[in-house]
Specification:
Elements: E1 22-23, H1 26-40, E2 44-51, E3 58-65, E4 93-99, E5 104-111, H2 135-146, H3 151-162, H4 172-186, H5 190-204, E6 209-214, E7 220-226, H6 228-246, H7 248-258
Antiparallel strand pairs: 1-5, 2-3, 3-4, 4-5, 6-7
Domain FAR1: 31-119
Protein name: Protein FAR1-RELATED SEQUENCE 5-like
Pfam family, one: FAR1
Length: 259
């Protein structure tokens, strides 16, 4: 619901966008406006983008408050959990225009007045535009996943390291989404990744051996590999060592057959 009257965030003039302010690219514009929005305690998103028909270059772009517009009326069952009003028709915005003479993006429109209360300080980090998974965080999550540490424990460890959830910079759902995207990239390429791993092991030790069989359609079938230690042990102990290591029960069956 809209609040009574209008709200103008109290932010230092150095951080406020000004008409005529120039930027080299749209990414710089977004980062600048998002930094201002974090201090003003609201989220932003891209509203409209116009591009050149011939070059495809962005010529005009508008960023708005995350509460711009109105939510569509839903016909879903009333039993669903009510999430509250997320859109209030807020008019706060930042508009930029490409000036070809300077090859710069210039601020041509800025409205700092909102029609809703600002988000509280302890919840600003939850807003979508202020959540970000850095490359170091992605690498950290990948290493934790290799030792089977679940996502909720990864986030808990980060909370302790940085001194609270508000300092993490993202929420648990962002890590789940990242893990989902990584799995999506691997699907269809797992055989290539396995072969690359085998080649890397072979590069470390020439005694590493592997063989991959594929069918007529190029799909992977049987895979066999043996590292230097396994081949050396097999040379010392032969098939009996292999059988005992794999299954004592199977070794007993083979002994009975040989007798």
């Amino acid at each position: 619901m809209e609040c009574e009257g209008q709200v103008t965030p109290e932010v230092s003039s150095e951080l406020k966008p000004k008409l005529g302010l120039e930027f080299d690219c749209c990414e710089d514009v977004f980062n600048f406006y998002n930094m201002y929005a974090a201090k003003a305690r609201f989220g932003i998103r891209c509203s409209t983008t116009r591009t050149c028909t011939f070059t495809g270059e962005v010529t005009r772009k508008k960023y708005v408050c995350c509460k711009q517009g109105y939510a569509l009326t839903s016909t879903v069952s009333r039993n669903r959990r009510q999430r509250g009003c997320t859109r209030t028709g807020c008019k706060a915005k930042l508009a930029i225009l490409k000036v070809n003479e300077k090859n710069k993006y210039t601020v041509v429109g800025f409205n700092e007045v909102h029609n809703h209360d600002m988000t509280t300080v302890d919840k600003v980090h939850i807003l979508r535009s202020h959540r970000n998974l850095t490359e170091s965080t992605k690498a950290y999550s990948a290493h934790m996943s290799k030792v089977n540490i679940p996502v909720h424990k990864q986030v808990s460890l980060l909370e302790v390291q940085v001194g609270g959830l508000e300092n993490v910079g993202f929420v648990r759902r962002d890590v789940y989404n990242y893990a989902r995207d990584v799995r999506g990239e691997v699907i269809g390429h797992d055989a290539e990744l396995l072969k690359e791993h085998f080649l890397a092991e072979q590069g470390k030790n020439e005694s590493f051996y592997f063989n991959m069989e594929v069918d007529s359609e190029g799909r992977i079938g049987n895979v066999f590999w043996a590292d230097a230690r396994s081949r050396r042990a097999y040379g010392f102990f032969g098939v009996w060592w292999y059988l005992i290591r794999r299954s004592t029960r199977t070794a007993m069956k083979w002994s009975l057959r040989l007798c």
